[in-house]
Amino acid sequence: MFIPERSRARWWLGRPVLCIACLFTGWLLLGSCNSPYTPRPRGYFAIHFPPKKYRLFDQPGYPYTFEYPVYARVVKDSVFRGGAVENPWWINVDFPEFNGRIYVSYKEIGGKNRFDSLVHDAFKLTGKHSEKAYSIDQALVSTPNGVHGIFFNVGGDVATSHQFFLTDSIRHFLRGALYFDATPNEDSLGIVNNFLQEDMRHLVNTFRWR
User: Fold this and answer.
1) Nearby residues of 194 by Cβ (< 8 Å), 6 or more positions away
2) Which residues pair with 106 in a beta bridge?
3) What pLDDT is stored for residue 134 in this prediction?
4) Rounded to an integer, what distance in angstroms lies between the CA atom of residue 144 and that of residue 162?
5) What pTM was computed for the model?
6) Euclidean distance between CA atoms 159 and 161, whole angstroms
7) CB 110, CB 170: distance < 8 Å
8) Torsions phi, psi for 80 (to 5 deg)
């Protein structure tokens, strides 16, 4: 449709709202082109944790006792690297709800199991994760029950973030390591690792030799 010059001016002046809307829309489009893109962080499923409650592991014949969570179960271990375990006192503390497990190995000090060699092996096993770890923290363990050792916290996408060894330096040596049946990922496993770390520390603090 052809509009004369005077009529055209009156046509635009009669539609101020339309002009403002067009200018505002154009400004938004130009501004959106220059705004930086911020990726949304990856989310994970919410996990509901059971209340902390413990019971005593005190089986006849075992050279140790300790408390463990009611939502865990203690299973006797019979296989180590495809072969038989060294003695009948190796166990696993399973957490079925979290697909996690504390592997517990026990050795009697003496003969081929020299105390300094056992300590060296414990540090060596923890150090195997150093390639993917950004930190390895050590905390000394010394309880009123005469139990001594070291608790390890390993930071990074590692197979096991929490390990420990306990000993009386004369007869007993025990090592524990928490593993998950999942791909190592510090972000996704972090909240579960922290929850079960409390249980591992409770196990250590209530541990007794027989």
Assistant:
1) none
2) 174
3) 86
4) 22
5) 0.76
6) 7
7) no
8) -135, 110
